[in-house]
Structure formats: C-alpha cells, structure tokens
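Board notes (copied after class):
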Amino acid sequence: MEIIGALLVSTMAGLATMIGGLVIFFKFKEENINKFIAGSLAFSLAIMIGISLTDLIPESSFTLLKEEGVGLGIIICLFSFISGVVLTKILNKLITKQELKKSDLYKLGILNMLALILHNFPEGIATFMSSYKDMSMGLKLAIAIAFHNIPEGITIAVPIYFATRSKKEALFKTFLSGIAEPIGAIIAYVFLSKYINSVLISAILILVAGIMITLAIEVILPKALKYNQKFYLNIGLGIGIILVLINYLLA
C-alpha cells in the first residue's frame, strides 16, 4: 500500500507539468503573439536559472559536501555542473542537425523537454523514496515540485505550439516531460532501490542545473531578445523571479 501511495504522489507532482501546458488554449490576437512568446521565454529563463540557483545547486552541494567531505564534494559538484554544460552544447548541436527544417522555436521546445525530462527523472526518484519512507514528508516535497513543474510545462508547450500550431504535439511533449517523474519512481523501486542514495541524486540534480542554466543563457535568452519586446520580456522575467522567490520561501 505504501508503494502505491508513493507512486501516486510522484505521478501527481510530475503531471502538474500538464497544467502549465494548458496555457496554449488561451486565445491571442495575431499582433500579440510575439509579445506573448517573448514574455513566456523570459519567464522560462527566470524559472530555469532561479530554480537552479535557489534550489538544485545549494541543496545538492550541501548534501555532497556533508556526505563526501569538502575536497571530493567540490570535485563532484564541479564535474556534475560542467557535464551538464557540455551535454547541453552537444544536444543543441545534435538537435540543430536533426531538425534543420524545423523552426528555432521548435528546437527550443525540444531542448526544454529533454532538459526537464532529465530534471524530472531524479525528482521522481526523490519524491517516491521520500513518500515511501514518510508520506507526509513526501507530500510536502511533491507539492513543492508540482509548484515549479507548472511553469516548466509552459517552457515546453509554448515554443512547440507556436512553431507547429499543434496543440496535440505541444501537450504530448509536455506530457513526456511530466511522466518522467513517475517513471523515475518506478525505476527506483524496481531496479535502483539498493543503489540510489543522496549523493547520486545530488550529483544528477547539479548536472541538471548545469543543463538548465546553459540552455537559458545560450538558447532561450537570444531567442527572446530576437522578438524585440523589452517590456514583455521584463514582465516575463519579473513574474518568473517572483514565483521562484515564493517557491524558495515555501520550501
């Protein structure tokens, strides 16, 4: 029974991503589309960098330093972060080669999806393991994760929808990202329960932070600036920063 409950909690947290994806059902006038995309990309930028700097990196670094000592802990932190940066650059080149006929927005949506799948996978493991040991602690963690999964859904759905005009494809890609959490939970239970520990999860989350920060700076920011919508870009950044701060204060 504890296993089913833990799996349901992890699924709830992951599929909150789909709530963010529902923004594509809002109707916008043609002249407002570029304003909305610029604001959404800026919002995505703030969420990705903010979550990395206020949540993933500090908490994971503290765990690694505590468990492995200062010297080895710092080495693991740096190696994980740099690996995330390098992986993002490789993924960006591969997707650019494979998707030459697709728009920049579509490539951005796919990169966001891949980054967030990697992000959600260890989160699913963490949520499942926490809920399995202590349901109240697992629920608190799941609510916090669900809270920042909603804006993450926007970062995937908006670029893909405006690139393809397909609500089905945008929602499906968002669903793939969200379902990574319960899949992570299942894998943790079936295969990895003996090997998963706080050090491994922390290293993975720092790697994810490297991916998200690199993606935000090298891909999302240039794309957002191309729309030449400073006012809406600033609004998106402001809303994203506010949500990150609220998430930080509630954690």
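Comment from the instructor: The first helix runs from residue 2 to 15. The two ends are 27 Å apart (CA to CA).
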